[in-house]
Amino acid sequence: MTIAKSASTYERIYAIVRQIPAGTVATYGQVATLANLAGQARLVGYALYRVDIASGIPWHRVINAKGEISESPLRLGGDDVQRSLLEQEGVMFSPKGRVDFQRYQWQFKEVKC
DNA sequence: ACATTGACCCGTT
DNA sequence: GAACGGGCCAATG
Fold first, then answer.
1. Best exposed site among A13, A27, A41, A77 by fewest CB in 10 Å?
2. Domains in chain A, number
3. For the segment A32-78, what is each residue's pLDDT rounded down to a tens digit?
4. Which of the pair, A77 or A20, is modelled with greater confidence?
5. Residues 74-103 of A with CB under 7 A from strand B
6. A110, part of any domain
7. Which CATH number do you get for residue A27?
8. Separation of CA A46 and C1' B4 in angstroms?
């Protein structure tokens, strides 16, 4: 599938996040880069904040570059929810609450038609 | 139309 | 190793 470039910045972000497979996590910076917004990982976080769960976007699979879960006090319950969702998908967290990037970081596989 | 917000990443000290 | 600040864009009221 191709990513629509004509789409708005946020839509591009949503398109990327939506393609993150279950049991995998991606960093904001990675999503930003894939969305053609390299260097603007912020927008990814901002965009996800506006996104609703009903949008069908696995926002919980997007974490910060530290491998930890970013949370917003305004979001659902907090990091507990996001971590729980990831654990449900089989993502294991380090004792420190970090995710093993070597194991779970989403690697964008360029699928050539 | 203006001002404010909002879940980050990187470099330097 | 930890802390601080700077920079970017879009949506909301």
1. A77
2. 1
3. 988 888 888 999 998 998 887 778 899 999 999 999 998 777 677 77
4. A20
5. 74-75, 82
6. no
7. 1.10.10.10
8. 14
Nearest one of A28, A29, A34, A37 to A15, comparing CA atoms: A34
In a domain, A109, yes or no: no
pTM: 0.88
- Contact positions of strand B to protein Cβ (< 7 A): 6-10
Cα first-last separation, chain A: 8
Per-residue model confidence (pLDDT) at position A1? 55
Closest nucleotide (C1' vs CA) to A42 is B8
The residue assigned the tokens 């901002």 is A46
Question: Is A1 contained in some domain?
Answer: no
Residue A68 belongs to some domain of the structure: yes
Mean pLDDT score of chain A: 85
